[in-house]
Amino acid sequence: MSGAADFVHLVEPARRPQAPTLLLLHGTGADEHDLLPLGRVLAPGAALLSPRGKVDENGMNRWFRRLREGVFDVDDVVARAAELAEWLPAALEHHGLDAPVVAAGFSNGANIAAALMFLHPGLLDGAVLLGAGYPLQGRGPGGADLSGTAAFLGAGAADPVSTPDQARLLADHLAGRGARVEFLEHPGGHGVPPRVVEGARAWFDGRYGSP
């Protein structure tokens, strides 16, 4: 695919002109099928591009390695984000999909989406980050100019995997680089309750228009 390392992926073509392309990034142990229903709810009629993470952790698909629960291999985060960033424009061209591109990710997928925003500014126009934390642990966000981009964060107050502190740190770093951030905290754990889906859909409609 134009020289870019390929990812196993699924595509649903757009049924609504002018809609952005939604890049769906699954969580640990899931695959390219997992977030298709969420994508259809967030952006009815938009093109969906849903790849599968290449890292195998004891039979579970992931986007990057971790050293243990909650501790990321940050060098691998950087390398895997670069690989995904190389693939995405080639995939868009190959499938005839249009920019802008908005990522929607859960957990590990939301973390790699956030890494794309910091490390490859301009690749994504925005992101829906659910159950996410700051992916560049121990490192600053760099000098990325994220003005003009936007992010919706859904975080659980009782989330033991992506803690509220990590979610707020991610929101602060995004806002500090110029992104417009909407943060919605729910009382649950590591999941995506209906309230968060509704909030993300409203955010998407407000930024990109409803069908």
From TrEMBL:
Molecular function per GO: hydrolase activity
SUPFAM superfamilies cross-referenced by the UniProt entry: alpha/beta-Hydrolases
Coiled coil: none
All residue ranges annotated as the Phospholipase/carboxylesterase/thioesterase domain in the record: 11-195
Pfam families hit by this protein: Abhydrolase_2 (PF02230)
InterPro entries for this protein: AB_hydrolase_fold, PLipase/COase/thioEstase
Top-level taxon: Bacteria
Protein's name in the database: Phospholipase/carboxylesterase
